[in-house]
Design brief:
It contains seven helices and 13 strands. A hairpin with a 5-residue loop joins β12 and β13. The chain is of the alpha+beta class.
Length: 266
């Protein structure tokens, strides 16, 4: 793809979000689109949003579980950017029409006290740079069709990355923990929608350890000259499958001693 096509694709995503009408698969519109192209589209998308007054508050890591990687036929996670208008308070209600097809995932969030970056980033550096970890929910949305109606082709990794890794919102629980206060591999959640258990999972589903996911992000960002900054929220990756959130849905994630998070949809 050319730089102009990167901008065009980003504008297509902006329009889909504005109108609430999903766009065609970018992978079909731009055959041969690479991962580098997809991240360039994402960067153009975020640049446009920041020009509109949005502020970066962190990052999300996605596709960290083997099940999700196998579903998209990939072997690597992806990442996206968290912006200030994506933050929802614990227990808040998402206004009707805010998202197109919202879903949620349960994750462990890292909040940073120091910058983190580098192609040789280590676990020890992640732990030293983390102010606290907290239970969280990520709200997903897709501005791209999940499948092409004419061919049945499902969206692929380049569609997802271009669309800011399907990121739409973040909800932090009120509990705060030192990063080494719990074995994050064994921190898990029981996630209910409307009082029905839909999913359960453990932190080990995230690359065997959410800290490993953070190492991956820091190293990937080094390739692009980026840095995880002090104060950033980083969603380390979901350990459950996405749960659909139709109008009126009430989501409760019980992380046990780690805390809890809730979000409602009008």
């Amino acid at each position: 793809m050319t730089p102009q096509q990167h901008v065009e694709a980003a504008e297509t995503l902006i329009e889909a979000e504005r109108t609430g009408r999903q766009c065609e698969l970018l992978s079909l519109r731009y055959p041969g689109m690479t991962l580098a192209d997809a991240y360039a589209v994402q960067a153009a998308l975020i640049e446009r949003k920041r020009a509109q007054g949005r502020r970066k508050i962190g990052w999300k890591i996605g596709l960290t579980s083997r099940a999700m990687q196998q579903a998209l036929n990939i072997t690597t996670p992806d990442s996206g950017v968290l912006l200030d208008d994506m933050a929802f308070a614990n227990g808040a209600t998402v206004p009707a029409g805010r998202f197109i097809q919202p879903r949620i995932e349960a994750e462990i969030a890292f909040v940073m006290k120091a910058p983190l970056a580098g192609a040789e980033c280590t676990r020890e550096e992640v732990i030293a740079a983390t102010e606290f970890v907290a239970p969280s929910l990520e709200i997903l949305d897709t501005r791209v069709l999940r499948a092409d109606p004419a061919t049945g082709q499902a969206r692929i990794i380049t569609d997802t990355i271009s669309d800011n890794a399907a990121n739409a919102g973040v909800v932090l629980g009120t509990d705060r923990h030192a990063v080494d206060a719990h074995d994050l591999r064994r921190v898990g959640a029981i996630v209910k929608r409307d009082d029905v258990v839909e999913e359960t999972g453990l932190g080990a589903g995230v690359l065997n350890d959410p800290v490993t996911s953070m190492v991956w992000l820091a190293r990937r960002m080094a390739e692009y000259g980026q840095v995880i900054e002090a104060g950033d929220i980083v969603l380390s990756g979901s350990f459950i499958r996405p749960i659909e959130c139709p109008p009126g849905a009430r989501i409760e994630a019980d992380f046990g001693a780690f805390g809890s998070v809730t979000i409602n949809f009008s």
